[in-house]
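Q: Got a minute? One more chain.
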Amino acid sequence: MGLWQYVGFVGVGAVVGLLSGLLGIGGGTIVVPALVILFGMSQYTGQGTSLVVMVPVALMGAYTYGAQKHLHLGAALAIAAGGIVTARLGATIAQSLPENVLRYIFALFLVVIAAQMVPAKAGLPQQAGFVALAAVALVVRGFLVK
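A: Always. Here it is, folded:
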């Protein structure tokens, strides 16, 4: 790994830490696209690397929120238990899919989540989310075609 690539990885980490703490988003929404698009990693390697990155970043953010009594430990442990049970299955399924299909599913998931959140938070009708979803899906589809 060269110096500039290392600096780039640290920069991605800085963005992930800031946005993870600020918005509570998982690092995968930033790390996977960054590793795949900016650093040319495969979708599989990007996703695997992202899972390792999330652990220390999430723990630091959780510690900071917990110190201010903004953490529901019971819910966190229950969700973690469910995730631990199914993470291996999800990783196995992901690695059995062709990479372009996995990339498309990942991109579509991000678009669907964004389309659902924007109208709810901006006071827009729910239909606005579906219009945004359709528009962004077309753009994303354009990026995925090689």
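A: The CA atoms of residues 18 and 61 lie 9 Å apart.
Q: Perfect, thanks.
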